[in-house]
Amino acid sequence: MTPALTHFVSGKPASGTSDRWADVFDPNNGTVQARVPLASTAEVGAAVADAVSAQREWARWNPQRRARVLLRFLRLVENEMEPLSRLLASEHGKTVSDARGDIQRGLDVVEFAAGAPHLLKGEYSTDAGPGIDVYSLRQPLGVVAAITPFNFPAMIPLWKLAPALACGNAVILKPSERDPSVPLRLAELFVEAGLPPGVLNVVNGDKEAVDALLTHPDIAAVGFVGSTPIAQYIYSTASAHGKRAQCFGGAKNHLVVLPDADLDQAVDALVGAAYGSAGERCMAISVAVPVGEAVADELVARLAMRTRALRVGTSDDESADLGPLVTAEARTRVLGYIDAGVAEGAELVVDGRDFTLPGHEDGFFVGGSLFDRVRPEMSIYREEIFGPVLSVVRAADYEEALALPSEHEYGNGVAVFTRDGDAAREFVARVDTGMVGVNVPIPVPVGYHTFGGWKASGFGDLNQHGPDAFRFYTKTKTVTSRWPSGVRDGASFVIPTMS
Ligand code: NAD
């Protein structure tokens, strides 16, 4: 019988009662490996009520005590790195070595958030006026919701959970229904690390559970990561219900290769960033922009060779460069885009559509695919494919190359490869995207800086992790206090000034 997963409420697994279920697949074989319950509005309401009462006591813990829970959690996850990585890879399809990175990039933010005692210190101005001191406090918001995508089932939940919990909030995590097992296990490990029951509840579900969170009066803020149409929906619905919201969406990341770039380095960077995780990364490079025909010809020739040589294998094959896509639906969508690219007149240099892995004929595999002579009006350029497909758009000069990512609807990440410091510096200053790599293909910032895209890649004011996370998960209270030692200045009917 197919194993049934649960929710996680009040520090323990909670069976679903809605009688609605989703299948969790084994992408290597195309079979169903588990069923996940989809929470009803009532189940979400019960999880929120539980979190509301747990949060009051949690917020009274001093920040150092809360941080120690994070540090114990960090060690527990490190001890379980191997089985967790295998579990993650088995539901997502990414390779086990890539799954280790998924978990580690999440732990980096746990480590950063354990600096909460320092990050929550607030500000103090003594003698702002006669006998007057002004100070500001950072206080938790209450109960917050985290709604996360399938493609980083450890990293993105941890980017939300670690700072939100460190600030004294309780969290309702609604992970992706496609790979929910690792988020559930992380919640168990938090409780094992000393997190009081109810401070982190996990509800699995789909639109019904999400809508219940977006409209619940006791949810103070919503952190979302996923595709752009859903990010827009979540941002507008949460905001309309008076909640603080930060919603990160899809991407179309370009890698610009200037004529003076080290081509070996650029090709290595492109194949890793385009095809790693089968292209299912929001920071994957999906567009290469060589500048000048000579560079373009050489780049495409080398990319074609490397794309044909990619090792596509099962997620537990340590020698594979990439595994299968997450679902059959994702595979059909990606194949549809490759068909569309051909129909629109792009040159399909390497065709991964017919790839099958012997012994895994029903797995959700697509081989690495490479398009040349892609034009900005084509759907394969405008839209996010989220698969192992790299498009080459040839630019005549530097200005054209700079304009492509700047004018694209999405603005998550971009990279420029060059040996010219001046050109790189100017590119960084002028390009219209949230994150930039200089000779770095996937510029995901370290946990103590912030992560966030611009334009259709992000909605809301503050970024994820880094100092912004502590701003997002707290509200500032500013206190003006006076101890006048017996002085009376009588009633004043004008706005007080410090003059
Ligand atoms: P998705 O938008 O389908 O799902 C994300 C979350 O929203 C899931 O928890 C899902 O259950 C929920 N959801 C889906 N449809 C919904 C609906 N109609 N109403 C309410 N909730 C709904 O995204 P995905 O396929 O899981 O993830 C891939 C996408 O995430 C890609 O577009 C990728 O670029 C993006 N992503 C962005 C970032 C970033 O930081 N910008 C990071 C990772 C992934």
Written overview of the protein:
- The structure is a single chain.
- The protein is of the alpha/beta class and 499 residues long.
- It has 16 helices and 22 strands.
- The strands form six sheets. Strands 14-15-16-13-12-18-19 form a seven-stranded mixed sheet, sandwiched between helices.
- Helices cover 39% and strands 21% of the residues.
- It starts with 6 loop residues before the first strand and ends in a 17-residue tail after the last strand.
- A hairpin with a 2-residue loop joins strand 5 and strand 6 (132-140).
- Nicotinamide-adenine-dinucleotide binds at residues 147-152, 174, 176-177, 206-207, 210, 225-227, 230, 248-251, 282, 384, 386, 412, 453, 457.
Summary of the model, kept short:
This protein has 499 residues and is an alpha/beta fold.
